[in-house]
Fold these 4 entries.
Entry 1:
Amino acid sequence: MKNEKRGLPRPVYECTVCGKEIPWEGGRLRLVCESPACHGVRRAPSPIQVREGDGHDRIALLEISRRFFGSTHLHAFGEVFPLSKTSFLVAEFEGERAGFLSYALHFPKEDEVAVVLLAVLPGFQGRGVGRALQGSLEAICRPKDVHRIRISSTNDNIPGLYFYQRIGYRLSSLAPGAAELALEGHGEAGARGFGGIPIRDELVLVKTLDRHPKPESNL
């Protein structure tokens, strides 16, 4: 049997493209369609610009929130956040909006910030937009003595949980049934999410910011 020596990473999966055995730390999540012919060729990184959103951007933000989440009033951390009032960042690629990050500064504590919405538009996913938005938020937080970022996710959001943990977030708390109740509030009770997983619970992840950040590695 392969890799029986204690301490070696043992393969748990195999690559669906080439068949190579993959140890735990060697796996990468990639979103692909159902077509057997699609190998999900990764796009090259692109130059991303991030700025504070303006009034025109807010209209687009509200439209995206309705499309992605079914509402412009998002339930997270036991609160309801109207996106018509939250601060937010916009990521652009070649003059086009590529993603949004809405946040509540000094929530729930003075030295914390909560990410209310993080959305990367289809067509720009896998290009570093989410990382660029997160990096810009961290740059806003540090001079304001904000040392922790909280982000909320539903139990089905496997790609999101993968991404957040790879950029330094740690699981903090679980609110069983919270997502289910939020969906009932805007007429989507029983909705299913990623991979057909029933949307039921809210998970909160927290990232503690280094006072002197290191250059980001290419994970």
Note: The longest strand covers residues 96-105.
Entry 2:
Amino acid sequence: MAFLDNSGDIILDAVLTETGRRQMAAGTFKISKFALGDDEINYALYDLNHPSGSAYADLEILQTPILEATTQVGMQYSLTSMTDDALLYMPEILLNEKLDAAVKMKNNTIYISVNAETQKILDHSTLGFGTGYTMLAGQRGASRMITIESCLNNADITMTQANQNTYLTSKNLMDSSQTITFDNNFISFPMVSPSSTKFLNNADGSWGGTTTPLQAITNISPAAREGFSTARGSMSRAGIFTREGATVDAQSLVNSLGVVGSMAYLNISVDPALTTTMTQTASTKWAKFGSTGVTITGVSATKTFSTLDLSLDITANNSGATLSIPITIVKRDT
């Protein structure tokens, strides 16, 4: 890793991926689209009270070194072009860990078991994490699923249908679909809840939604990153609102501080070669790209596992909101 000194002249630093170099050699290289991001900008450095005057408010930002271009890092905070100059709030995608069907993070990741014997030990109340912290890959009707919410994560925007209509629907920021980017060396395809899935609460505030079986999204396309693919899945409009006189607070169902626009459940199908049990010969991918024979914090030290650390990158197709979800694919070894 290296940094570029941008304190003087403007620098344009670009590199080509392997695919780009092949196209360049064949004379077919052509830039058809591009994206901008501000991953390296720390806006807290903007100083309106700079001792030299307001003209120098952004000096620290402009003089911050930036990373050299690389083909290995994707943008976490991409910029989105909006035509409505009156927008006051932009949606975010959050991981929901409050619904009963939502899998929770453990050790800063989401553990996804590749087979039932792995799931059983991780779910064990004394030997493992206990229920709620792992999910089983490939299950359409899984008891635990990755759950996401597209929302206005601001307590000033209370959880009412009027605010959902005013700040999301009328601004064309209601996300009805998502693009999922994943590593196709280990993940075969994602699985997503259909648009008919209900995410809502009842008049008393209690959960009134459904957990419709997930749909396999096998219509996948190559991603811009080598070895990655993308798939498009649906999101369902949420109806989780603050109910007058309710005995259950809507905040107990979502991670958002403000109104939620849409939600979805997700799972993945992994490469079948990764799903072997303890008595079967394991794929060499575990040792080549991950770790084998390891213990997991929070699980009995007498049990060892093979792990692969990956991510699912979610982009909401209306608002452009993004979320990178760290996942660990795990297989029991002993």
Note: The CA atoms of residues 204 and 246 lie 4 Å apart.
Entry 3:
Amino acid sequence: MICSRLTNRYWGQGVVYSTVDKIIEVAESQVRAGGYNAFSFREIAKQVGIKSASIHYHFATKADLGVALAHRYTARFEQQLDRLAENSAQPSDRLEGYIALFVEALTVDKKMCLCGILAAESDVLPEALQRAVKVFFEVNVAWLQDALFADQPQARAQAQAFLILASLEGALLMSKTMQTHAPLQQVSKLLQQDCWQ
């Protein structure tokens, strides 16, 4: 079971981080850069400045830490989606803001979507982590349906949501692999032009 204790504060850029926060931050960075197998308790402990046993105190297994990563990433993404819905009345503006979340991952973070990279590895992930990653996609599809296509029949709205999410995740993967922003830029442009045709 994931332990929720927050101990030992870290300071960085005026923000206070708990040990758990710092562990998750480092682990997320490693997973987004190289996938589930790219992170280890030993490497995280080294970067955080603690012993590996200290990580086990908070997360009994690597799977537990992976689930915590997926839950936090999904929760943060959902907060962004809520803000988009609140601040943008028009579906086209919401789509533009949604696309911007993926563009930011590429241009600012210079990393893959956490749940996107985990989804590519889903066959070899622990079952609990597979479920946590699935939630990310369910949340996104539901939001896209409601925020962009609420006036369309459910089957079409769902298909459109699948198209948008799959296109952006795929374009992000291609952009990283091909080392150019072009796939994500061009897919984004097409989505904005053709979504309601």
Note: The first strand starts at residue 10 and ends at 12.
Entry 4:
Amino acid sequence: MSEENNSQKQTPPQPENSEASSEIQKLQEQAEKFKNDYLYLRAEFENYKRNAIKERSELTKYGGERFIRDLLEVVDNFERALAVNVAPENFATYKQGVEMTAQELKSLLQRHSVLEVPSHGAPFDPAVHEALGSEPSEQVAPGHILRVFKKPYKLHDKVIRTGQVVVAKKPE
């Protein structure tokens, strides 16, 4: 009797009608379809991650290309200025050319969202300025900037270089 019980337990239950069998077949096909869809989406996501990493790497590597191309135009102008033999007769035009090149450089920085932060006479801001010292002055209010050694610059809204300044203090 125990052999009969074992053989009955080992045989899988058979569906009693073909309707249940076709339902099981449909569910198995649907499960297989979901599995294939999942594997396809997983592979697509892996490709997306790989491409995103590659794009980020290229952006880091070549992100400044447009800026550098524009900057090279200014470098060319400086090199032409250095090639000129400066004499008393052409000093005024030489100086004018160097000033125009400097203005071109400032314009280039502005086009690329690099802006100078006006500082002279402005209140001292430790997020934008580095105080090199303080001097008594009646020209500027105490706590305001008396002299600027290095101008501060922002790229969009971020300070990319703090200014080095001397802060005015009340005369004694």
Note: Residues 18-61 form one domain.
